Amino acid sequence: ETPAAEDDHTPAKATTALEEEDTPWLTRLHEVLVTFWPLGFVAFGGPQAHVAILRDHLVVQRDWMDEEAFTELFAIGQGLPGPTSTQLVVSTALARAGPVGGLLAFFLWNLPGLIVLQHVLIKEFINPDDPPFYLIGLPPAAISLVFKAFYGFGLKLDQLGIALATFSCIIAILLNGDDNIEPTATQYVFPIMLLCGGLVTYFDSKRENPWGTYKTPKGWDKEDDKTFKRIGISVPVGIFIWIVWAVVLVASIVLVDVGDVDNEYLQLFEKMYRIGSIIFGGGQVVLPLLEAEVVPHWLSEDQFYQGLVPGPLFNFSSYIGAVFKGIPGALVAYVGLFGPGVILIFGMVPFWAKLRHVAWFKAALNGVNATAIGLVGAACVILWESAINTTADAMVFVFAGSLACFFKIQAPIAIFAGGVLGAILFKDAASLGQVEYCEQAGYEKILDAARMLVWFA
Question: Which tens digits make up the pLDDT trace of 244-291?
Fold first, then answer.
């Protein structure tokens, strides 16, 4: 692309932007409904897989926002306590259709997981080590989109960004793979890395010859406040929302721990809300914290682990509440654990919409974004190990990834197609590709293949 093309502002582009700005709110709300209702049903693979699904659906397929804005919202979610993928769902829908759109997307995203948990609680237990045939292919299919997202994110990075992403990727892999490091360490290591990444690019942007690239993005207009208007929340209201979060946190702690109020629903809410307010790093961190709080006081260890089913781990709060106090307890625990993260992202997004037009903040966001992208890269390594257990899983991974990357198939359809292939290859169906990768013979085959490639070269 020539330099002239970079500055090109054709009438067609201007008309498109104007038409998008004039899109009625009800139309945009309908878009949120149509976009998010199927995504909760394919939300397998953990937060990073969810981010990949959202990127494919919102940036690549529907062009709701550019890659830069999406990555910024992802990085903000990483830096706030709460469920990162859910916060990304809320913030992207909020930027599209305002507060109602954000709440609608939140409901649609989490409803399937709640339905599954109630089914498990009342009827049967799905063993994650031996899932039914209709679920076996979904995780490797979903994880293929993480690789696609990481590649897409990485193409946008300059050399300094690649260095920051590499560093955060290595640290994240270390935290996941060292028995001497507690899993809860991510809740302070991740935010610190994001902060350091932002500081690095901020100070680098002040240098006469910076290592990074800090050019104005194509089509970027510092006076454009369309996104801010769509959000529909002013900065003062955002500050008020944060105050509400703090008041609820302090009041619940005081009532339970100081006032010693004897109300089990309040005690359940306080535990969940307090945990939801300090959780950084997603579901892998919330699990040990929840276990420490509720076992053996409200649940036995066996009851606790029987609630682990596919889906966002934050939905696990409803299972704990239901075992402890029935359906009302499930609702109280669900609101308590999800509440802080959702409240905070509602308060933060108007600041993002205003400050992303400020040069120093945008420079700092470069580093925050690059660091967050490194966490997606770490997820590629970690999730591959956990989800690709057999040759059949690898076949599903390649199939779904090819559909999404090369044939531009939407994420839910690609994941569903991968699930169908996984069911066909299942041990009780065609029983193809059931050799486990962890067998020593598998490594020997890989070495043989590598030697053959070297010989041909």
Answer: 999 999 999 999 988 888 899 999 999 999 988 988 755 556 776 777
List C-alpha distances in Å: 408 to 151, 228, 402: 15, 31, 9
Predicted TM-score of the model (pTM): 0.78
- Local structure of 301: helix, strand or coil: helix
> Which is more confidently placed, 408 or 303?
408
Cβ atoms < 10 Å from Cβ of 444: 10
* Euclidean distance between CA atoms 85 and 113, whole angstroms: 14
Q: Which amino acid is at 263?
A: N
Tokens read off for 117: 């948990």
DSSP 334-400: HHHHHHHHHHHHHHHHHHHHHHTTSHHHHHHHHHHHHHHHHHHHHHHHHHHHHH--BHHHHHHHHHH
β-partners of residue 436 are 390
Residue 176: CB atoms within 10 A of its CB come to 17
For residue 359, the one-letter residue type is: A
Contacts of 294 (CB under 8 A, 6+ apart): 271, 304, 320, 324
